[in-house]
Write a structure and sequence with these properties.
alpha+beta, 36% helix
């Protein structure tokens, strides 16, 4: 059974790994049902397959801002500069994460103090409870569309919109609504985004299942009259499904704070497949080495055979470096010595015949056939005019080994000629 442990981080300014600060916790099964819940030091908490930490809302600053339409990676890189004008501190001291789109069409961004976050993570990891996800404690508060959830936790509280934006509030000891809530409603009315109602409730905890007695119908009625908006009471809702959904889509542990343990578990799950892949790669490497050794042996045997053939054909050769190339050069030399046409002779014959046609006056002649055999090159062409034949005849007479005749069989065309040129003439 896969277990999930929810840990509520205490609202403390700093954390000491050696201090046994009590925390509230809830253990869920794989069906997202509560198995156990309680409160105590980290060392007493049950172990689970996944750990989700809930950060106090008071340590988060929620910002609504416009972001450029770029990829998620580029957006995260620009995020710190996008919220700079909305912070009163150096933006390099905060860690910011985009939670989603806001009701205004912009984005909801959560910013958290980096030093405080580092202290929390060290505190949890020292107890062997490194979190896979970190979400706001407000993530477990469900909000209906068009309404605001108004959560009171002692002298502190917050108002949460349906898009996930949170207003931090100081409640105070009196019966009057928080001043911050009054300002938030005024701003929402100015932008035509005022809620239809406020749902007043206490912060859910492992031991609390009923509404705080301090939040009664009379207080809700008084706040409704002062704020000019309906206020009704709501029971504390654990909202575990909302927390789990926020852990998937709005995890505050991103970038440099991403959980390395999650990657380790993925590697553990993928280990069998990685082992099979490594074995396949190893087998392929062995077969490749065997093939290379076999090919090298065949190449060496062929080189030895070529060297032996070269020594037999040319016993006077002193140095044998490249038998195929040396054999080709010696063969060409023997052909020239015995008056046999070589490859270079064929190229020379073709070049001379085509040069005769290119030198003709008037339009170009059309080549219809070209052959080279036994040191004789034959070229059939159709002249562009009758005057070209006389010019071609004079050029052929001046070229040794060349002859001009008719092409086309027994009844040749008047302008069809055949040029022949013998090598070595």
């Amino acid at each position: 059974m896969a277990l999930t442990l929810l840990i509520r981080i205490p609202d403390l300014p700093r954390f000491d790994p050696a201090t046994p600060t009590p925390v509230g916790w809830t253990l869920l099964d794989n069906a997202e049902s509560v198995l156990r819940a309680g409160e105590g030091p980290l060392a007493s908490l049950p172990r689970a397959d996944r750990v989700i930490a809930l950060a106090p809302v008071g340590h988060l600053l929620f910002i609504e801002t416009a972001l450029p339409p770029v990829s998620a990676d580029k957006r995260d890189a620009l995020l710190r500069y996008a919220i700079e004008d909305k912070l009163t501190i150096d933006p390099s001291t905060v860690h910011a994460v985009v939670l989603g789109a806001s009701v205004s069409g912009n984005h909801v961004v959560a910013a958290i103090d980096r030093s405080w976050l580092i202290g929390v993570l060290q505190w949890l990891r020292a107890a062997g409870l490194a979190p896979d996800s970190l979400v706001s404690s407000a993530a477990g508060i469900p909000v209906a569309a068009g309404e605001w959830a108004l959560v009171i936790d002692g002298q502190r509280g917050f108002a949460k919109r349906a898009d996930g934006f949170v207003y931090n509030l100081d409640v105070g000891a009196g019966k009057e609504p928080p001043f911050g809530l009054t300002l938030a409603l005024k701003e929402a009315r100015e932008h035509q985004r005022a809620p239809s109602a406020l749902v007043l409730q206490a912060m859910a905890s492992p031991t609390q299942s009923a509404l705080d007695p301090a939040l009664d119908a009379a207080l809700a009625s008084h706040w409704a009259q002062v704020l000019g908006i309906p206020v009704r009471l709501g029971a504390p809702d654990a909202g575990w499904q909302s927390v789990l959904a926020a852990a998937r889509s709005g995890n505050l542990l991103s970038g440099e704070f991403a959980a390395r343990e999650a990657a380790g578990r993925w590697l553990a799950l993928l280990r069998p497949a990685l082992i099979v892949l490594a074995l396949a790669i190893g087998a392929q490497l062995v077969f490749t080495l065997i093939d290379n050794a076999r090919l090298n042996g065949a190449r060496q045997a062929l080189e030895q055979e070529l060297t032996q053939v070269f020594k037999t054909a040319f016993p006077a050769a002193q140095a044998i470096i490249d038998p195929p190339l040396q054999m080709q050069r010696n063969l060409q030399q023997l052909k020239r010595e015995r008056g046999l046409p070589a490859d270079a002779d064929a190229q020379m014959l073709i070049a001379r015949l085509t040069g005769l046609l290119q030198a003709l006056p008037g339009g170009p002649a059309t080549v219809s056939a070209l052959t080279v055999r036994d040191g004789i090159a034959t070229l059939d062409a159709v002249l562009a005019g009758a005057e070209q034949r006389a010019h071609l005849q004079r050029a052929v007479d001046r070229l040794p080994g060349a002859a001009l005749g008719n092409a086309g069989g027994e009844k040749p065309a008047p302008l069809a000629v055949r040029l022949t040129l013998r090598a070595g003439a």
